[in-house]
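If you are new to this repository, start here. Below is one unmodified record pulled from the training split, so you can see the exact layout before writing a loader.
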Amino acid sequence: MDIGLDGGFADPVLQAQGSFRAIMDALANPGTPRQLVTPPSLHSSLPPGLASILLTLADHDTGLWLDDTLRADAGVLDFVNFHTGAGVVQEPGRAVFAFATGAAHLPRLDQFNLGTQEYPDRSTTIVLAVPALTGGERLITRGPGIKGHGHISPIGLLRDFVAQWSANRDLFPRGIDLLLVADGEVMGLPRSTRIEEGH
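And here is the target side for that same chain:
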């Protein structure tokens, strides 16, 4: 199958709206997984969850950063070009959205566009595929959208994730937002969320 031409949403408007609601709800309720509308299997290095968010959020005005695995797959580049028209950027700091197939392929969070005090909304949103959204080290979450405190335990985060995230949180209102994707679900971690080691 040529994923450059196939592999998109069967009903682009309706399904993109469904995924957009899931993404927004995930960011409004940090740490709570939401079900994405995923396209058919792409038979490529692009996981369906990443494809869903790419199809939903990217357009011809969007600068996309892709990790080495995605960038090396000609089918993925064709898919991005055909379905979104988005330009692929080499430098993380120029990305509106960044897509990574695993934490090992991701630069440090502070290498991405952190926004400015005047335009904090221009920062990068990172979309990271992880093996699972539960079953990993227990972390405590606090902040807007979280009653009291919450817990998350994704598998496959950056090795020093809590330290990097703390530095990112200290930049507020600047800083990146993070979407974790696994098994057709998305978990949102906006820059306003505090994350601590669990006890």
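Two things worth knowing about this chain: The helical segments are 12-28, 48-57, 68-71, 74-83, 161-169. Confidence is low (pLDDT under 50) at residues 1-5.
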